[in-house]
Predict the 3D structure of the following.
Amino acid sequence: MSLLLNSVDPKLITLAQKIFDQQFAQDPKLGQEMDERRKQLMFQDILYNFNFLTTAVTLEDEQIFSSYAVWLFELLCNLMKDLDRDRIKDQMVHHYQILGTFSDQLFSPDKAALARAYLEKASSLTEAAVDDYPLSEQFLKGRHAEIRRAYLSALLRSDTTGAIQIIKEAEASGIRLEEIYEDIIRLSMLEVGELWHQNKITVDKEHYCTSTTQMILSLFYPTIFSQTGNQNKIVTCCIGSELHEMGGRMVSDLFEYHGWESIYLGSAVPVSSLLHALEEHKPDLVALSVTMPQYLGLCHDAVQAIRKAFPSMLIAVGGRAFQTSGKIHERWPVDIYTELATDLIAWADEKVKKL
């Protein structure tokens, strides 16, 4: 038994046990998520919650418990990285609801009402804290920052309907498709990747954000594929076992929207298969996308193979992985590296016109 339990009134320990048992009874998932060590810590947290709530109610200072609730939420998010923030929020809000039903056993009737009000405020602040991620400066700036943040928030809450609606409203408001792709969706997905890299979200959440965004991109296909072609052709793909195909897909979409015929090969394309596709389609430009730095070597091999097999073919590279390097593309036999598809399109239109 810990020193904390040794120093606590036995009546409070009994009450904490009732709250503990009730939460597990009402939330079956807790039994799967909490090993014995976590259960012990959770029980101790209930006693700490008593302590902070009692202090706040006695001094009639709501901020004491509110500040504690937000701090506790962030602490649990850091300690239980296998659970996403939404799930931990659900655990905390449920706990505060149960604690509220036992407030009459902790306080006199007038103080119990105050305690319930403080617990409701703590629940509200915990709900709000779910979206309080440390976001990058680039993400928070720019013309469409408000829409971008709303879209990211919907994704992180697994609100598929909300995410679709935000993008549809952006389109209806007259925002150009290129801006929706690059300034809203692209930057949102870069932020998702960064949050996953920092262990702020779980891999299943990252996969949900990606698959949902891919589905939303498909909503633009009737518009994208209705454009008049200009006879220019591009092949795009992701290299090796690269599964982060969002960048390549968006490049292909925007080239198609600008009148190019785009052949998107998808992800996990072996170099031999890529060369076969280039021989078959004979594009004006091939664009290779790499998200994870460990696949830069495979991308370099692909570039070398393309240059050897098709000496005059235009080669473009891009993707987040290049931003982690020391301008490695400058030492490769490529024609251009760009971060934005629109920059690549402007360059390619001009370049192909001169050939």
In short: The longest strand covers residues 233-238. Residues 23 and 142 are 44 Å apart (CA to CA).
